[in-house]
Amino acid sequence: QVQLVESGGGLVQPGGSLRLSCAASGFAFSSASMRWYRQAPGKERELVAGISSPGGSTNYLDSVKGRFTISRDNTKSTVYLQMNSLKPEETAAYYCYALRVFGREVWGQGTQVTVSS
Predict the structure, then answer these.
(1) pLDDT over threshold 90, residue 85
(2) Residues 6+ positions from 93 with CB-CB distance below 8 Å
């Protein structure tokens, strides 16, 4: 089946780092643009980072530029989000998203990131 499975979330102290992973299956990963979104309780879901197919360009939410890095490994059908210098306000569920050929979309189930002391 077509799916995205996130992992790597957890509890981290302010200023700490986490690396999220999203494993894709069931479709041509290298042909899909990949994105990370996040949603905190009571807030709208926001785009955090995106990477093109096959991976030549990236874009970031202004507030995470210089601290977060999105990357992909097409041989492993996996996209990553390296998050450094995490802030408490970045506590949220983080979701992986794929935009496939013909505009077809896939969402992961999300992984929780909690930034707290």
Answers:
(1) yes
(2) 38, 39, 40, 110, 111, 112, 113
Q: What is the DSSP letter of 84?
A: -
Distance CA 114, CA 34 (A): 23
pLDDT in tens, 36-71: 999 999 999 999 999 999 988 999 999 999 999 999
pLDDT(108) > 90: yes
DSSP label at 28?
Answer: -
Q: Tell me the C-alpha distance between 23 and 77, whole Å.
A: 6
75: helix, strand or coil:
coil
> Is the separation of the CB atoms in 22 and 108 below 8 Å?
yes
DSSP lists the bridge partners of residue 49 as: 36, 60
The CA-atom distances, in angstroms, between 1 and each of 4, 37, 91, 106, 110 are: 10, 22, 30, 11, 18
pLDDT greater than 90 at residue 21: yes
Give the C-alpha distances (Å, rounded to integers) separating 55 from 15, 52, 69, 84, 89: 28, 5, 12, 21, 29
